[in-house]
Here is the input.
Amino acid sequence: MVPMHNRAWSGGLSPLAQQPVGQQCGLPRLRNLHLWFPPYMKTVLARSLRPATSGSRHILFCFVDHFEPFDARRTMAQNDQIVNEWLKRYPELCARHVDSDNVMPQHTWFYPGERYYPEYLEALCWLAQKRLGEIELHLHHDGDNEQSLRALLELTKSNFARHGALTTAGPISRVAYAFIHGNSALCNSRRGLFCGVNDELRILHETGCFADFSFPTYPSESQPRKVNSMYYASSSPNTSRGFDHGRDIKVGKKERGHLLLIQGPLALTWRSRRYGILPRVDVGDITGHNPPTPARVQTWVRQRIGVKGRPEWVFIKVSCHGAQAADMEALLGEPADNMYRELERLFRERPGYQLHYVTAREMYNIAKAAEAGCADNPNLYRDYIIPPYKNRSEYKVIKPCVELQES
Here is the structure.
């Protein structure tokens, strides 16, 4: 592997210890059941009573990545190799797949703001310029107040802007970003650990955030009481967990709340049973131990997450930790190939369906278009409110990205 240079960590922020990736659990280990099980059963009942959708059904598939290409257990050379694998293997994977709009798979890398390495961001910019995805903001923080969180977000936005990230292209440029909270602690939801700020949704909104993509967080105690939803929520300085309740995004209704929360699927699945008897919980998290399968694709679609009043647009958001060595094959190898192949077989080639690979920004834009009453092909609304970022269109890479090994 070609070594990287100027690898001094930038930004003046202390890195936090990373938390282990959660695994699916069987029923004996179902944690925080009281938070999610009653609302989950309500969604199951509502889905069974919902009339069949007429006309074409559009499946919007979004892959969000808690992309953390550094690990205290790895050397910098090993970290570089992780990034190199993405630069080499991900374009090769995407080249084999397209959706109904002739768009290749889209990956959204939520890069940790507190671990700013210019070379790694430049590598992701190179992929973004190839129209294979976009960069958004992932943040681990602890012990903050409103002032320190604002300062952290402003510094992060400034660092990212050097690479054309989080800054929209076009004549009127502005900062905009989607967000994932590190350590699953949005709005101080882990009893004061890994956050410190109850009123986080408001602060995110005021600093340019347009939507949060953190959930679900099962089995964490931060799992919201609302599941399989897209909804507006507000936070308060006096209480934590402002995301527990909110108003679903709905056709013809104005937004109400600080921020739109776009959740991924949370479902009990009986196809892969623990001990052959008990159901497992699928939260759309793709790992080496829990790779994507055709059965899981069906489970995600069945949750029918979307904008109320637009049931023919089905929003699927799955997640991963893309820089974990143990998960790389599931994300870049045959399991990912099979997942995209199944999506295309079911929803691109099947009459009455259309498949759309979208970034987090595009998913938000399409949801807002549905809210405004738009009802035709969602492909028309990928840039409805938030334009593409500079590093996806007009931005020119400052310097070469991480170099690939010669095969």
